[in-house]
Amino acid sequence: MRVLSLELNELNFHYIKAFVAQGYLPTFARLLRERDLVETDAGEVYPELEPWIQWPTVYTGKTYADHGLFRLGDIVYKDQPQIWDYLETRGVSVGAVSPMNASNRCKSPTFFLPDPWTHAKIVAEPRAEKLFSLLGRIVNENASTDTSVTGFARQILPLALPYLSSRSIAGYFKILPMALKYKWAKAAFLDRLLGDLFVALWQKHKPGFASLFLNAGAHIQHHHTYDSTAYHGEKTNPGWYSKAAETDADPLLFIYQVYDGMVAEMIALKDTHLFITTGLSQVPNERDHYQYRIVDFDGFFAKVGLVGATIRPRMSRDFLLEFASVEAAQAALPVLDIVRCGGRPLFAVEERGKTLFCQVAYFGMPVGLRQISIADAEEDLSAAFVLVSIENAIHQTTGYHIDTLAPKQAQQQQRIPLTDVFDRLCKAALEDQARSASLAA
After folding, report:
1. Residues 336, 207: one domain?
2. Who's near 207: CB < 8 A, 6+ residues apart?
3. How many structural domains is the chain composed of?
4. 264-304: pLDDT as tens digits
5. Which residues pair with 385 in a beta bridge?
6. Helices (H), strands (E): how many in the chain?
7. How far apart, in whole angstroms, are the C-alpha atoms of residue 16 and residue 29?
8. Do 331 and 273 belong to one domain?
């Protein structure tokens, strides 16, 4: 047996249960009948309740207080052991696709493709590396560009074809009608591709432990929970933001059905011990909260007068500015401070030596971006920003974990610290390795 850790970021099993009760999601329905759904508790509070903090908790078995990873991409600056190198030193071959805020410190992974926002070493065959790099670029540009489905396919298909199967092609045809209508549905294409790439590499290299991180569910929940029948609150998305409610499309059911099919395929893989973990989950956001991203980072900061910075976009409204020295970073602070919206600084800035971690700190209606001042000059810079989301849902400390082979226990629902997932995965990988070695002998 080989251990596969499927990371369905922030997936809401309380919504999954509701859809199962309506007759949807047959794979999740079977898992809920036959296996234990274990609740995990991240044990953190805002602002420490973020996926780029909690996934390192899964990967290290340590809380935020111990691993100290606070921002997406921070792992590259810290010598923090993670599950892949831990298992590798114990003789288990390892692989990973898109683990959040993780760095490749393995000596010889079978494959390792970091998330699109963390600049870590890539290990993969040339075609897989090219495909993954293209997917990463599309993820980073998704908010600020409106690539059509046909344009997306034209870029991806030549590289992706060897990793597809008749099984997965059928999955794409289920996604296609929604992706043609709704921009948010394209995220499912990305996760489907990552899943196919992962399975192809998994079957080719046969690592003893490997992980796959998927984020479309979290993305769609954040953006479109109000549009789902699973939501029973009073908030609604404006028509200019989302057409889903007008057409009876249910974004949450859509992505859960995509995952339901993918989970079924992974359970069916030969000699596979599948674990599913969500890290966190989400609850509806009952306040108005708009998030924006800069469209053209280089052009915007050239206009502002910022020089000497390497700009590294992160997820959503975040970006990192890297400088050659601490002094250069300090000199950039007053340049950023003169950019204001409604009389308040447009950017929240965290000083970190030679780097500045920045966030767009305006959360009001788009019309407010028409009055941005740079020094004493006010102008309409609304075209320089794109609305990432109206934040429909926010994080909560509860997550979920399923061992798809462990028999259901006759007891009440379990709740464990999120740190325990590390031990569970390592134990399974080491036990399965020992069992395989015994059979081989």
Report:
1. no
2. 2, 92, 93, 94, 95, 109, 110, 111
3. 2
4. 999 999 999 999 999 999 999 999 999 999 999 999 999 99
5. 294
6. 14, 20
7. 9
8. no
